[in-house]
């Protein structure tokens, strides 16, 4: 045990994603722009929800504002370190930095899963039980649900970080990935990882599967209710409020299931799949919600119109 403790790692080297050297500059600029646009787009959604009275008094858009905060945080946790892969020289990450990155990724990612489920439940109440909606989804309950999602996410992230880094890591120190995630880090452990792999599969599987199942059940009820609406305009408006949520849930859950809920492989598609929940989804969410949600588009127009009026006065 003393010989192992004397050689424990103090840093890791993230190998990043493989790429042709001639594309180094292009990829650096691409991910830099993606990161900047992700922050600006989600900040715009957050400000719109906060400023517009019709939105920030509505639970659905409170959830959307929280989602924007999570997207900004996930992008900040992953993308800056990913961009370092496209610069010259070796850029190691400290052991503590690796622990922190893994914790925040799983904390924010699981919170996002819970939030998507709450958003589906909110749409279910709004469409299937519209007369009871103001009572069932009031401000107090909305606050409690959001707080519960954050607490559950933090517990999930803490559990995964403790389980992963309770193991000794004594070399090599190259993580074959672009960030510190459980499957890639566990490969470097100097101990049996069977229990970790089983707990990770069950824990993440339960979170993903239960959230996805609840979302699916909610939308089965929602679709049945929408089809009972007699007017085409009413159906279109109902689908408009749900379409954006269905799109982001699909873009988020499919890659997550691909990464964590399948037998271990060394496929190069692993890294490509992980780019979706860490980089692409946070970038797309503001676009999806502004393009497919009529109320958000109207709120943006009201906010821009108000700013123009003030500038002219």
From TrEMBL:
Keyword Cytoplasm part of the UniProt annotation: no
Pfam families: 7tm_4
PROSITE patterns: G_PROTEIN_RECEP_F1_2
One MF annotation (Gene Ontology) recorded for this entry: olfactory receptor activity
SUPFAM superfamilies: Family A G protein-coupled receptor-like
Superkingdom: Eukaryota
Coiled-coil region: none
Function: Putative odorant or sperm cell receptor.
Family from the record: Belongs to the G-protein coupled receptor 1 family.
Full protein name: Olfactory receptor 10G3
Protein species of origin: Phyllostomus discolor (pale spear-nosed bat)
């Amino acid at each position: 045990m003393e010989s192992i403790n004397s050689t424990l790692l103090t840093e890791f080297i993230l190998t990043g994603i493989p790429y042709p050297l001639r594309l180094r500059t292009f990829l650096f600029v691409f991910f830099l722009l993606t990161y900047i646009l992700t922050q600006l787009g989600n900040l715009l959604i957050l400000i719109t929800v906060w400023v517009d009275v019709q939105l920030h008094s509505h639970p659905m858009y409170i959830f959307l504002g929280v989602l924007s905060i999570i997207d900004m945080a996930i992008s900040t946790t992953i993308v800056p370190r990913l961009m370092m892969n496209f610069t010259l020289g070796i850029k190691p990450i400290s052991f503590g930095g690796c622990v922190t990155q893994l914790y925040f990724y799983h904390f924010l990612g699981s919170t996002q899963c819970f939030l998507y489920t709450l958003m589906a439940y909110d749409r279910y109440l709004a469409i299937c039980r519209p007369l009871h909606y103001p009572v069932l989804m009031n401000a107090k309950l909305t606050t409690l649900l959001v707080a519960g999602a954050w607490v559950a996410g933090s517990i999930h992230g803490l559990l995964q970080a403790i389980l992963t880094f309770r193991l000794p890591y004594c070399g090599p120190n190259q993580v074959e990935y672009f960030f510190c995630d459980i499957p890639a880090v566990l490969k470097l452990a100097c101990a049996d990882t069977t229990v970790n792999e089983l707990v990770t599969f069950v824990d993440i599987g339960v979170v993903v599967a239960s959230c996805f199942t609840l979302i699916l059940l909610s939308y089965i009820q929602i679709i049945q209710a929408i089809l009972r609406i007699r007017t085409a305009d009413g159906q279109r408006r109902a689908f408009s409020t749900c379409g954006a949520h269905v799109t982001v849930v699909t873009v988020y859950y499919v890659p997550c299931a691909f990464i964590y809920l399948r037998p271990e492989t060394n496929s190069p598609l692993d890294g490509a799949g992980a780019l979706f929940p860490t980089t692409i989804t946070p970038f797309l969410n503001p676009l999806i919600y502004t393009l497919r949600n009529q109320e958000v588009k109207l709120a943006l127009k009201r906010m821009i119109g108000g700013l123009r009026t003030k500038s002219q006065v």
